[in-house]
Amino acid sequence: MQRTNSLLPIASLVGVVMFFFGSLTQVQAETPIGQWMTEGDLSRVEIFQCEEALCGRIVWLKEPNSDDGKPKVDINNEDEALRSRAIMGLEIVGGFIPDGRENRWRDGTIYNPQDGKTYQCTMKLKDSNTLQVRGYVLVPILGKTQTWTRHID
What we know:
By secondary structure, the protein is α+β, with helices and mostly antiparallel strands. The chain is 18% helix and 42% strand. It has an eight-stranded antiparallel β-barrel with strand order 1-2-3-4-5-6-7-8.
């Protein structure tokens, strides 16, 4: 009986450690931080913490080069001075803050290199591997949602 009682504190400690690490894993699963394949698997965006907000940049392109064999550049940008910047590494999402509801972020922007425009944007985690990204003009109802899939190496 003495031996059983001496194991109780160790078992309790193991339980606390497992609970802590289980909770930590749960917190990590409820954030969009990480890499995401965009709809159609044309690119991969890495979302990361930048100051108090979330930002993201292109880290992979299905077709990284133009027809001339050179790396793709931001040729459609409305600002002519930015048309020579590389698409690879381009920060395309930024400014996202939690909106107070679980697994949702607001007040962000998303840049679309295909049309050279920046849109207001919200993000919502449907589950740990599915992110809904909604770009819009003026109000969210005037927008389009893309579903991104978490990229796991």
